[in-house]
Design goal:
The complex is a heterotrimer.
Chain A (H helix, E strand, L loop, with lengths): L20 H14 L6 H9 L5 E7 L5 H7 L6 H8 E6 L7 H14 L5 E5 L2 E2 L8 E2 L2 E2 H10 L3 E5 H6 L12 E2 L1 H8 L5 E4 L6 H14 L12 H4 L10 H6 L9 H4 L18 H4 L61 H32 L1
Parallel strand pairs in A: 1-2, 1-3, 3-7, 7-9
Antiparallel strand pairs in A: 4-8, 5-6
Chain B lengths: L4 E2 L8 H23 L15 H13 L2 H11 L6 H25 L20 H29 L5 H4 L2 H21 L17 H27 L6 H8 L1 H20 L8 H21 L8 H25 L13 H24 L3 E2 L5
Antiparallel strand pairs in B: 1-2
Chain C lengths: L2 H16 L18 E6 L8 H10 L18 E2 L4 E2 L12 E6 L5 E2 L5 E7 L8 H5 L5 E3 L6 E3 L9 H5 L6 E2 L8 E2 L5 H4 L6 H4 L6 E5 H13 L5 E5 L8 E5 L18 E4 L17 H13 L3 H25 L2
Parallel strand pairs in C: 1-14, 5-6
Antiparallel strand pairs in C: 1-11, 2-3, 4-6, 7-8, 9-10, 12-13
The chains are: A alpha/beta, B mainly alpha, C alpha+beta.
Chain lengths: 379, 378, 333
C-alpha cells in the first residue's frame, strides 16, 4: 500500500528524480552520521542541498582510468544522477558530459569566470610533470595547465582517487611520465587553494559524496589530517576495525590462499594484507553497497593498500605489512614490562607480626628485668 | 661442680602449656589447608618471593637458635673447658628441638614433599647445589644431635651414671656435631650467593657463609645464656651466672671479628650507598645497631658478672642475629622491581605453632627427663 | 686448639672467600656448546600478535610438553579462583611459559622509540650457558642437555624446594602455588617437539620472523649482521628459522647496539635485539660472570674432594678425644 503523504514531493522540483522527501532526509542524515556529525545536521544538509542555488563543480581529468567516476556510479544514496542533476551543478566532466571539443572547453572557461571563487574543482587522475607535461594533453594544453586554470579560481579542490591524491598507479616506479598529485602540481604552480584528498583506487564513493555534502552545507572542507584526507574517513587504520582482527589477536592466520585458515576466514596478514598500514574506512563501511563483508578483506583478498602512499603500487602484494611506522598505541590491556606481584602486608598480618615482635621483645626485657630483681634479692 | 642432671618435675599442664597447645592447634588447622589446597592457599609466598618466613624463621633462625649445642660443644670439648658441661645437655636438647622442627617445617614448606627423600638418592644428587649440602648436613646433624642427647634417656631409666659406657664414644659424636653445623650454617649463607643482584648489596657478598656461621655461633651462645636465665626464672632455679659469664667472655671477641669483617667488606664493595633507602636500609641499621649494642653491654669484663646485664645482652644479640637472617633472606631480597612480600596471617600462625610445639616439648622434656643440671645449692 | 687460633682461622678463611678473584674458578665461562640451540627475538619486528603465546600453550599441553598434566583436557588458561574469572596473564606464571610484554613511554606513538614510543618484548626461559637453576637444584630435577643446551625439568625428581626460583636471575621458573601437588613450570624450548623433528612453537608460528630458531652460533651471527645494517635500509629477515630460505624484506630499525644474552651471566641461548635498551624492558642488568660460577667457586673451594671438611674433622676428633680424656679424668674423683 502506498502512503501518499509520505511521497510529499518538493514543489521546488529539485527532487524531480522521484526520490521521496523521506528517503532524501534519510540520505542526508546518514551522511551526517557517517561523517561523525550530529544526526540533526542531516536536516541542515538537506536544506543546503535543496537550496535553489546548486554548487557548481568543475571536474578536471588527468592521467586516469575513470575508475573514480565509475565508483561514483555505484553509489545508491545518493545516486550519481541525483548528485549531478539535483545536488550539484556539474559544469564540466569529460566522462559524463554530452558536449565535446571547443564547445566543451568554452563551457568550462565560462563556468570558471562565472562562478569565480564559488565552485569546487575536482581533480581525477595524476598529472604528468616530466617533459613539460606533454604526456597528457587536452585541446592542445597539458593536464597541469587545465588543473591550474580551474583550481586558481576555485573555492576548494577535491582530489579524488589515489592518482590525484599522491600520484597513484601512474607514479609507480619508474614513473615514466613524472606523474604527480594535484596538490603537488598546484604547489609547484603557486596556486593557493585548499586541497582535500580522497585517496583510494577507487575511493569509496561515500567518502567523496559526504565530503561534498559537507562543503555544500557548511561552505568549508571537513577536518583534514596531515595528508589532506578527511579525518572522518581516513582517521583510522583498516586493521583497527577489521572484522578479521580477532583472528589476528588470537594468532590465527591464513598461510596460503585456499588453506583451512583462509576458508575459516582467518586473518590475511601473512598473505600480505596491508590493513595494518593503510588508513581508510573500508573495514567499517564495506564497499559497493552489496552488504556486510563486501570489501576486499571481507571476501578473502588481502588489502593491498590502494589508498596509502608508499604502500599501494609500491610494496609487493605478498609481503607482510610493515608495522614500523604504525602510530597507534598498543592495546591498553597488554601487560607492561614492569611486572612484579606477590602479596603485600595486610592489616591483620601487620597486627599479628607487630604483636609477635612486641611480645618477643617484651618477654626478653621482662625476663632480664626479673633476672635483675632476683639477682638483687639473692645478693 | 655438679655434673648430675635431674628432672625438674612439677605439673605438666600449666597455663603456658595450654596457650601453646591452642596456638599449635590453630597452626595445625592452617596446615591442613596447605596440604589440601596448596601453598598459595595459606601463604603469601609468590614466584618472586619463593621463600618466606617458613624458610627464614623456621629453618634459618630456627637452626641458628638450635646452635646452642654446637656453640657449647665447641667450647666444652674442643676448647677443652670441661667446666661448662652442666650447660651442655640442655643446649643439646634445644638444638635437637630446633633442628628437628626445622626439618619438619621443611616438609611443610616444600611443594613436592613426597619426593623429599630424593635428596638421599645418589643418582639424583647434584654436588653443585648448596642446598643439597645443607639438606644432607641438617639431616645428618639431627641424627647426631639425637645420639648426643641419647644418654639422657639412658639416665632417665638407669639413673645418673648409667650412660658411662656410651659417653666413651661421645667424642666422635661431638667432633662430627661440630663439623656438621660449621658446614651447613656456612652453606646457609652461601645459599643466597647464587641469587646475585636479587639480594641487596648490603648483604650479597662472597662472605655470606662466614657471616652466617659466625652469627649462628653467636646465636648459639646467646641462646645458652638466655635460656638458662629464662628457665631459672620460670622454674625458680638458681642462676648459673659464674658459668654463663665465662661463656659470655667468648662473645665480644667473635662479635668484633664479625663486625670488622662485615664493615670492611661493606666498605670495600662500596655497598653502603644502599643503606639509606627503603625498608632494607632501615633494617640494615637496626641489625647493626643491635650487634653494637650487644657488644657494648658485654664489653668491659665487669659487666659480664651481672646476671641482668648478661641476660639483656644475650637477648639483644639474639635479636641482632635474627634480624640479620631475616634481612639476608627476605628484607634484602628484591627479585625484580614491583615484587613484594609480607607473611600472611596463616603463615605467621604456622610459624607460631612450630614455636609452640617447641615450647611444649621443652616443658615435657625438662620436667620428665634429666636435662637440667641439678641445682648446686638447694 | 686455642680459641684465639680458631678465631684467626675463621677470619682467615673468610677473607680468602672475600677475595674470590684469587680463587680458581670452578666453572670457566665456556659459553654455549657448538650444538646448542636457541631463539633470537627481534623486538623491532614483533607486532604483538601473541600467536607465540597461543602456540606455546597449545603445543605444550600435550604429553611430554612443558604444560602437560596427566588427564588434562584443555590447555591451562589463566584462572583466578578468587575473582572467578579467566583473564590473560600479566606476567609469566605456571600456566604461561611465554609472554609478550609491552614497553610504553609517554604518548606511546612510535614503535621502537624509547621516548614517546613502545615496543614488545617476549619473555621466557633464557636457557643460560651456566644455568643457576641447574646449579641450585639439589636433586637434579633441572638439567641442561649436553648437546642442545636446553634446560629441562623432571617433576619426578623435584622436591618443590623452589631454590631454582631464588637462584634464577631472570625469575623464570614458576611454581604452581594453587595446586595440592604442584610442579615447577618453565619453557623447555619445546624439547618434546625437537624429538619429533620440529622446533620451538613460538618460532614456527611467528608470522613476522620476530622469533627465529636455530643454533646459537648462527643466531649470534645473524644478530651481528642485523646490528651492522644501516637503519632505514632493507634487509632480508629469515622467517621461523635462522637457516630458512624464506625471508621477508623489511626496513631495518634503529637497534640498540647490544645483543642481550651474549654476555649476560656467561651467555644465554635466548638472544634479544631491540630498539629500546634492555634495562627499560624489564631485563635485568647482569654481569658477565654468572652468580652460578661465583656460588660454585665458593662451594667447590670449601668442599673440594671433601679435603677441608676432612682435615677439620680430624682436628676436631683429636681435640674432642683429648678433651674427653681430660674431662673423664676430671670427672672421676
Amino acid at each position: 500500500m502506498k502512503c501518499t503523504t509520505c511521497r510529499e514531493v518538493d514543489t521546488g522540483g529539485t527532487l524531480g528524480s522521484g526520490l521521496s522527501r523521506r528517503d532524501f532526509m534519510k540520505v542526508c542524515t546518514a551522511a551526517a552520521v557517517y561523517m561523525g556529525l550530529d544526526a540533526s545536521v542531516g536536516a541542515q544538509i538537506a536544506e543546503a542541498a535543496t537550496a535553489a542555488k546548486r554548487l557548481p563543480v568543475i571536474w578536471i581529468s588527468g592521467q586516469e582510468c575513470t575508475g573514480c567516476t565509475e565508483s561514483l556510479l555505484r553509489a545508491t544514496h545518493p545516486t550519481l544522477e541525483h548528485l549531478i542533476l539535483e545536488l550539484i551543478s556539474l559544469e564540466y566532466h569529460e566522462t559524463l558530459q554530452a558536449g565535446c571539443g571547443q564547445q566543451a572547453n568554452e563551457a568550462r572557461e565560462n563556468a570558471i569566470t562565472l562562478y569565480k571563487g564559488q565552485y569546487i574543482c575536482v581533480a581525477e587522475g595524476s598529472f604528468p610533470t616530466k617533459d613539460d607535461g606533454i604526456y597528457c594533453r587536452i585541446g592542445g594544453l597539458t593536464a597541469v595547465h587545465h588543473l591550474a586554470q580551474a583550481a586558481s579560481s576555485a573555492a576548494a579542490v577535491i582530489a579524488i582517487g589515489s592518482c590525484s591524491s599522491w600520484g597513484g598507479m601512474p607514479s609507480a616506479s619508474p614513473n615514466p611520465t613524472g606523474a604527480s598529485s594535484a596538490s603537488a602540481v598546484l604547489q609547484a604552480k603557486g596556486v593557493k587553494v585548499p586541497v582535500m584528498n580522497i585517496p583510494g583506487c577507487p575511493p569509496s564513493p561515500y567518502n567523496f559524496l559526504s565530503a561534498v555534502l559537507y562543503f555544500v552545507t557548511f561552505g568549508k572542507l571537513p577536518e583534514l589530517d596531515g595528508k589532506g584526507r578527511p579525518k572522518f574517513a581516513y582517521g583510522r587504520l583498516i586493521h583497527e576495525n577489521c572484522e578479521r582482527r580477532p583472528s589476528f589477536d588470537a594468532g590465527n592466520f591464513a598461510e596460503q590462499f585456499g588453506d583451512d585458515g583462509h576458508k575459516q576466514g582467518w586473518c590475511l596478514y601473512k598473505l600480505g594484507c596491508k590493513g595494518p598500514e593503510t588508513y581508510n574506512n573500508c573495514s567499517t563501511l564495506g564497499f559497493g553497497d552489496v552488504g556486510a563483508s563486501a570489501w576486499p578483506v571481507g571476501m578473502g583478498a588481502p588489502c593491498f593498500g590502494c589508498s596509502e602512499q608508499n604502500v599501494g603500487f609500491t610494496e609487493a602484494l605478498h609481503s607482510p605489512a610493515r608495522l614500523d611506522n604504525l602510530d597507534v598505541t598498543p592495546p591498553a590491556l597488554f601487560p607492561g614490562v614492569d611486572g612484579g606481584g606477590g602479596k603485600g602486608v595486610t592489616t591483620a598480618a601487620a597486627a599479628i607480626a607487630a604483636g609477635v615482635v612486641g611480645a618477643v621483645v617484651g618477654a626478653g626485657l621482662a625476663t632480664s628485668k626479673k633476672v635483675g630483681q632476683a639477682e638483687e634479692v639473692r645478693k | 661442680m655438679s655434673h648430675v642432671h635431674t628432672p625438674v618435675g612439677g605439673p605438666l599442664f600449666t597455663r603456658v602449656f595450654a596457650i601453646a597447645l591452642v596456638v599449635a592447634g590453630i597452626g595445625a588447622w592452617f596446615l591442613t589447608q596447605r596440604f589440601m589446597y596448596g601453598l598459595g592457599a595459606v601463604s603469601n609466598m609468590s614466584d618472586g618471593y619463593p621463600w618466606g618466613i617458613w624458610i627464614t624463621y623456621d629453618v634459618l633462625v630456627g637452626t641458628a637458635i638450635g646452635c646452642g649445642g654446637y656453640a657449647m660443644a665447641l667450647l666444652v670439648y674442643i676448647f677443652n673447658k670441661g667446666e661448662y658441661h652442666p650447660l651442655v645437655r640442655s643446649a643439646v636438647m634445644t638444638s635437637l628441638f630446633g633442628y628437628a622442627l626445622a626439618a619438619a617445617s621443611i616438609f611443610v614448606d616444600i611443594g613436592r614433599y613426597w619426593n623429599m627423600f630424593n635428596i638421599f638418592k645418589p643418582s639424583l644428587m647434584n654436588f653443585n647445589s648448596v642446598l643439597l649440602e645443607v639438606a644432607l648436613c641438617i639431616a645428618a646433624y639431627v641424627g647426631i644431635l639425637f645420639l648426643e642427647f641419647f644418654p639422657t634417656f639412658i639416665e632417665a631409666r638407669g639413673g645418673p651414671g648409667a650412660a658411662k659406657g656410651y659417653n666413651k664414644i661421645m667424642f666422635i659424636l661431638v667432633a662430627i656435631g661440630v663439623l656438621l653445623p660449621t658446614m651447613h650454617q656456612s652453606s646457609l649463607g652461601t645459599l643466597m650467593v647464587i641469587s646475585g643482584d636479587k639480594l641487596s648489596p648490603l648483604w650479597q657478598s662472597g662472605l655470606l657463609p662466614f657471616y652466617n656461621v659466625t652469627t649462628a655461633i653467636l646465636m648459639g651462645f646467646g641462646i645458652v645464656i638466655f635460656e638458662s636465665y629464662l628457665s631459672a626464672v620460670a622454674f625458680k632455679r638458681p642462676f648459673e651466672t659464674p658459668l654463663l659469664s665465662k661463656v659470655a667472655g667468648v662473645i665480644p671477641g667473635l662479635l668484633i671479628v664479625y663486625l670488622v669483617v662485615r664493615w670492611a667488606d661493606l666498605l670495600l664493595r662500596g655497598a653502603l650507598g644502599s643503606a639509606f633507602a627503603g625498608t632494607a636500609g632501615l633494617m640494615f641499621w637496626i641489625e647493626n645497631l643491635l650487634f653494637v649494642a650487644a657488644l657494648a653491654m658485654l664489653m668491659p669484663a665487669a659487666r659480664r658478672t651481672s646476671a641482668k646485664s648478661l641476660c639483656r645482652a644475650s637477648f639483644v644479640l639474639l635479636l641482632g642475629c635474627a634480624v640479620l637472617k631475616f634481612n639476608m633472606y627476605i628484607v634484602g631480597f628484591q627479585p625484580a622491581p614491583g615484587w613484594r612480600y609480607f607473611p600472611s596471617v596463616p603463615e605467621i600462625m604456622v610459624t607460631l605453632a612450630i614455636v609452640a610445639v617447641e615450647i611444649m616439648a621443652y616443658l615435657i622434656f625438662v620436667k620428665k627427663l634429666p636435662v637440667l643440671a641439678a641445682p648446686e645449692h638447694t | 686448639m686455642k680459641r684465639r687460633e680458631f678465631l684467626k682461622l675463621t677470619a682467615a678463611s673468610g677473607l680468602l672467600l672475600a677475595t674470590d678473584a684469587g680463587v680458581s674458578r670452578a666453572s670457566e665461562a665456556k659459553g654455549p656448546s657448538p650444538d646448542a640451540v636457541g631463539i633470537l627475538f627481534d623486538a623491532t619486528l614483533c607486532i604483538g600478535c601473541k600467536v607465540c603465546m597461543v602456540a606455546c600453550k597449545r603445543e605444550n599441553s600435550v604429553p611430554g610438553g612443558a604444560l602437560w598434566t596427566e588427564g588434562m583436557t584443555r590447555p591451562p588458561f589463566e584462572y583466578n579462583p578468587g575473582l572467578r574469572n579467566w583473564d590473560m596473564a600479566t606476567d609469566l606464571t605456571s600456566r604461561t611459559l611465554n609472554i609478550i610484554l609491552t614497553y610504553r613511554n609517554g604518548t606511546g606513538n612510535t614503535k621502537n622509540a624509547e621516548i614517546d614510543g613502545y615496543t614488545f618484548v617476549k619473555r621466557h626461559c633464557m636457557h643460560c650457558a651456566e644455568p643457576a637453576c641447574v646449579s641450585a637444584c639439589p636433586v637434579s630435577a633441572m638439567t641442561k642437555d649436553k648437546k642442545t643446551g636446553i634446560v629441562t625439568y623432571d617433576k619426578d625428581a623435584c622436591i618443590g624446594c623452589r631454590y631454582c626460583q631464588v637462584a634464577c636471575p631472570f625469575n623464570i621458573p614458576k611454581f604452581e602455588w594453587d595446586q595440592a601437588y604442584p610442579q615447577i613450570r618453565k619453557c623447555q624450548l619445546c624439547n618434546h617437539r625437537l624429538k619429533e623433528g620440529k622446533y620451538a612453537a613460538c618460532c614456527e608460528f611467528c608470522p613476522v620472523g620476530a622469533s627465529i630458531y636455530g643454533k646459537v652460533t648462527d643466531l649470534r651471527a645473524e644478530a651481528e649482521r642485523r646490528l651492522a645494517q644501516t637503519p632505514g635500509d632493507f634487509y632480508d629477515y629469515p622467517q621461523q628459522r635462522v637457516d630458512s630460505f624464506k625471508t621477508v624484506s623489511s626496513k631495518v630499525a634503529r637497534y640498540q647496539k647490544h645483543i642481550y644474552g651474549v654476555n649476560e651471566v656467561g651467555g644465554t641461548q635466548y638472544l634479544m635485539l631491540s630498539g629500546v635498551s634492555p634495562d627499560k624492558l624489564g631485563l635485568p642488568k647482569l654481569p658477565e660472570r654468572s652468580f652460578t660460577a661465583k656460588s660454585e667457586t665458593i662451594q667447590h673451594t670449601l668442599y673440594k674432594g671433601m679435603i677441608a671438611p676432612g682435615v677439620l674433622l680430624a682436628g676436631l676428633l683429636f681435640a674432642a678425644y683429648r678433651s674427653g680424656r681430660g674431662h673423664e679424668g676430671e670427672d672421676k674423683p
